[in-house]
Design a protein that fits this description.
By secondary structure, this protein is mainly alpha-helical. The chain has one domain. It contains nine helices and two strands; from the N terminus they run H-H-H-H-H-H-E-E-H-H-H. A hairpin with a 2-residue loop joins strand 1 and strand 2. Helix 1 packs antiparallel against helix 2 and helix 7 packs antiparallel against helix 8. The radius of gyration is 17 Å and the shape is globular. The N and C termini lie far apart (35 Å).
C-alpha cells in the first residue's frame, strides 16, 4: 500500500501543479495539458524503483484508462481534455502504457522506459515548444506541425534512446538515430491523438529489436 501511496501522491502532485498553473494562466490550456503529459514521465522509473509487480501495474494502468474513458463523457476532470481540438490522446497515452507494461515490464524495462519517455518528453516537448515559438509549419492530416517542434521531437528522442541504450549496453549504435528518426516520423500522424499510441509502442519494439537483441 505504501508503494501505491507514493505513486498516487506523485500523480496528485502533477495534477495540483497543473491546476495552479491554469488558475494563473487561463489562456494556456495546451500548456496545462502538456504539464500533465510530461510530468507523468518519471512515473515508470519510480514504479520500477519501488519494485511494483507487473500485475499490479497493469491493474492500476487499466483502471486509469477506464477513468479516462469515463472522463470523456462526464468531464469529471476537465483539465485533462481542456483543448480546442478533438483528441483521444489521453486515452491512447494510457492504453499505450498498459501495452508497454504488458510487453516489457519484466522482459525489457529499458525498452519500456524508452518508448514511454519518447512519448512523454519527446512528444510533449515537441508540442509545447512548437506552439510556443514561431517557425515554418505545415498541415499533415489536418494537424499543424512545425520545424521547431519536429526538431525538438528528434533531438529529445535521440537523447532518450542514446541514454537508455548506453545504460543497458554501455555502447552507442547507429540504430539509436534510426529509432529516433522513425519516432519523429510517426509523431506526424497525430490525428485524434493516435501518435500517443503508435510512437511509444513502435519505439519500444524497435529498441527491443535493435538494441536489446
Amino acid at each position: 500500500m505504501i508503494k501505491f501511496a507514493i505513486v498516487i501522491s506523485y500523480l496528485f502532485l502533477i495534477f495540483f501543479i497543473s491546476i495552479v498553473f491554469k488558475k494563473f494562466n487561463q489562456d494556456s490550456k495546451e500548456i496545462v495539458r502538456k504539464i500533465i503529459h510530461i510530468g507523468i514521465g518519471p512515473l515508470i522509473p519510480i514504479a520500477q524503483f519501488l519494485k511494483i509487480d507487473q500485475n499490479s501495474a497493469l491493474i492500476f494502468t487499466g483502471f486509469i484508462s477506464l477513468m479516462v474513458l469515463i472522463n470523456y463523457k462526464y468531464k469529471l476532470f476537465p483539465t485533462i481534455e481542456d483543448v480546442e481540438r478533438k483528441s483521444y490522446g489521453t486515452f491512447f497515452y494510457c492504453i499505450s502504457l498498459f501495452f508497454l507494461i504488458f510487453l516489457f515490464w519484466n522482459k525489457d524495462p529499458y525498452a519500456l522506459i524508452t518508448g514511454f519517455f519518447i512519448m512523454t518528453f519527446g512528444d510533449g516537448l515537441a508540442g509545447l515548444i512548437g506552439k510556443s515559438f514561431a517557425s515554418k509549419n505545415w498541415i499533415f492530416l489536418k494537424q499543424k506541425k512545425s520545424v521547431l517542434g519536429t526538431l525538438t521531437m528528434f533531438l529529445t528522442s535521440t537523447i532518450i534512446v542514446c541514454s537508455t541504450g548506453y545504460a543497458q549496453q554501455k555502447n552507442f549504435y547507429i540504430n539509436n538515430l534510426s529509432i529516433a528518426f522513425i519516432a519523429t516520423v510517426l509523431e506526424q500522424f497525430s490525428v485524434l491523438g493516435i501518435d500517443n499510441f503508435i510512437v511509444p509502442i513502435s519505439s519500444a519494439l524497435l529498441f527491443n529489436f535493435f538494441i536489446t537483441n
